[in-house]
Amino acid sequence: MGLKNFRIRDDAKWGHPELEVAYALMGNSVGYAEVLLNDDLSFEERQEFAAHAEDGFAEYLPPYDLTRTTEYEAPGCIDEPDAPPVKVVVAQPKGERRYKKNSPCILIIPGGGLTTCFRFTAAIEDWADKFGVPVATLTYRTLVQGVTYPAPVNDCEAAYNFLVEHAKELGISPNKIILHGNSSGGHLSLALSHRLKKRGITPRGCLVWVPIIDDRPLPQYRSQSINSAFWGGSDSATSARLYLGKLNNSVDVPPEAFPGRATVEDCVGLPPTFIHAMMNDAGLDQAFDYASKLTAAGVYAEIHAWGGSQHCSLSTAANVMDKDDPDAEYAQLFNAVNAKELKDMFEYDLRRPWTVEEFNKADE
After folding, report:
1. Number of Cβ within a 10 Å radius of residue 347
2. CB 3.0–4.6 Å: which of 22, 37, 136, 334 could bond 317 by disulfide?
3. What is the mean pLDDT of residues 217-233?
4. Model-level pTM greater than 0.85?
5. Where does 74-232 have alpha helices with state H?
6. Do residues 150 and 245 make contact, with C-beta atoms less than 8 angstroms apart?
């Protein structure tokens, strides 16, 4: 029979019983990869298909009320003089703030398979109310706008810099900005932490769910052969190829393009990082490999591997299931763990700047 029969995991039988609803919600994305990899397509046709997927996914997600948010235009990244302004949206808590002064802020970077940006699908108002802190998100450029790396990272950096420069106006501490993302939003959160390290900046922390970490089909990444409903190894390979553009298959891909390319030394001085991986996800092994580099580099890091879950299924369940539903305990546990990690980053500075000096001394 062989192991190949265990690679397709889109059936709910692979899932935790409480995630059956989430499995049913997730479509099958294999067709997405097949279309984008079709060599008969022009770049413009791929671009059009990605735009269609972006619009379709926006309809698929539960809508969020964005009536009490403020929209800003952030100047583009300094590395890209001709970059257009970046749309940044900030939600303030409806009730009383959790912190009267020096409030943390969460920057949610939307996902989108590295080829699209599922704009305004981030639950910024929900999170602002739940955690009592301002929450921001952005719209970054992708294949839909005809760009490749480094444009998405540039836009994320521009959004981060905007929050820092307007911290007083927004009522936040510029030293307490936490990066968060799901799927390719997780990838960009990790990538941004590497970009900011190059600038001498360490964010307060980084919380990522099922991040797409590496562009390479390395033999140690056995999970990369898994194709579950909604996302699989073929999708990761396709999106990486289109995201990198001219850098595709290059030995010079930097960690800020794909964090899996980082060495242990590249990880020294990164922010505290909390990774949530799913057992039936193609990125599972990449997540563990990256976490091992973080711990070897002395970074405060945690990794959680959730059984019976696939790409985005648990985060979807956590967002759409009623918190009072007695059958949603698994999703509630996921939410509780994330809430604890955010609280730790809110209240404790878990960064370890001394590790940089100690690492350099060890090499002398």
Report:
1. 12
2. 22
3. 61
4. yes
5. 124-131, 151-165, 167-170, 184-198
6. no
CB atoms within 10 A of CB 79: 12
Q: What is the rounded distance in angstroms from the CA atom of residue 56 to the CA atom of residue 141?
A: 17
Whether residue 116 is contained in a domain is answered as yes
In a domain, 181, yes or no: yes
Distance of CA 122 to the CA centre of its chain: 11
DSSP state of 6: G
**Contact status, residue 29 vs residue 231, Cβ threshold 8 Å:** yes
Q: Which residues does residue 343 pair with via DSSP β-bridges, in sequence order?
A: none
Question: Tokens in use for 312?
Answer: 């985005």
Q: Where are the beta strands (DSSP E) in the chain?
A: 8-9, 69-74, 86-91, 105-109, 135-139, 177-182, 205-209, 227-228, 273-280, 301-310
Residue 340 backbone class (left: φ over 0; alpha: ψ -120 to 50; beta: rest):
alpha
Q: Which domain holds residue 239?
A: 29-361
Q: Flag whether 83 is in a domain.
A: yes
CATH number of the domain that 257 lies in? 3.40.50.1820
Q: How many residues does the chain have?
A: 364
Q: How many CB atoms lie within 10 A of CB 45?
A: 13
Asked if residue 18 belongs to a domain, the reply is no
Surface-to-core class of residue 250, CB atoms within 10 Å of its CB (0-12 exposed, 13-18 middle, 19+ buried): exposed
Structural domain count, the chain: 1
Amino acid (1-letter code) at residue 45: E
Position 197, amino acid: K
pLDDT tens per residue, range 170-219: 999 999 999 999 999 999 999 999 999 999 999 999 999 999 998 887 55
CA 41 – CA 48 distance, rounded (Å): 10
User: Pairing state of beta strands 135-139 and 86-91?
Assistant: antiparallel
Cβ-contact 89, 214 below 8 angstroms: no
Q: How far is CA 259 from CA 144, 230, 337, in A?
A: 23, 23, 24
